[in-house]
Amino acid sequence: MNVSTIVTRLTGLPIPQVRYFDSISSTNDEALSWAAAGASDGCLVVADQQTRGRGRLGRRWITNPGAALAFSLILHPGPVEQERFGFFSALGALAVCQALEGMPGPRPQIKWPNDILLDRKKVAGILVEASWTGEKIHSIIIGIGINITPQAVPPADELLFPAACVEQSPGKKIDRLDLLRAVLQALFAWRSLLPGDGFREAWEERLAFKGEWVRIEQAAIPAGKELSGQLIGLDDSGSLVLRRSSGELIRVAAGDLHLRPIE
Ligand code: BT5
User: Which of 93, 132, 212, 243 has the fewest CB atoms within 10 Å around its CB?
Assistant: First the structure.
């Protein structure tokens, strides 16, 4: 990968500028500082390797060289998008899912709120962060990491959930830049529909574990409620709806987004 190949492959997409790094700490960190320095909407940071790739809540995201896709897209939300900040993580997940659907292999699914699974194993994760000026969101950074080859998959003892890669079957080859283009294309297409009915339905359709009993390990659960239930779907705000054994429906909001002030 290099910057000119990436730019050529992304021709026609609303991406004014690309920064590429063979190795970087985190593409989200680079995107946040580039956004603060004036990067315009659609600017993109891509790296072959991350030495301090980040997941949510301070967790680590491993990006081994030559084996994965790691990129961060800078968006400046318009007035309507300001109100829909909570949907940007789903926007990233939906875009990755749709891009993978265009390639041979098992059907991708979204492990709510933001993991992409193939055969119930995590192949990609999304980290959405924002910087604010006063009450307004200045920029939204959608960071996406996708495991392409088996070398991208961290050892099992470093994982909270089983992981895999998109080239999981022997002999299967995925062109990283084809996938990058497909993800960004889907992301820009869905962005304009956020979060209309079509968007929510497309997201819900792809939810993993629908109809199954699941346990939620998140602080966002209302106090005193049990953390398990049958996964029913999503409500209008994108919260997960579970049916408890008593029949009661409970809603779980994601709310894991990291916020950063602009200096
Ligand atoms: C995520 O967090 O899944 C969000 C990952 C976002 C990574 C992208 S890469 C480009 C951009 N720049 C960044 O610095 N980050 C973004 P979370 O749901 O918190 O999951 C983190 C957990 O996933 C870790 O605690 C590990 O258990 C597991 N994990 C780490 N690396 C993995 C990998 N390569 N494949 C599968 N699982 C991984």
Answer: 212
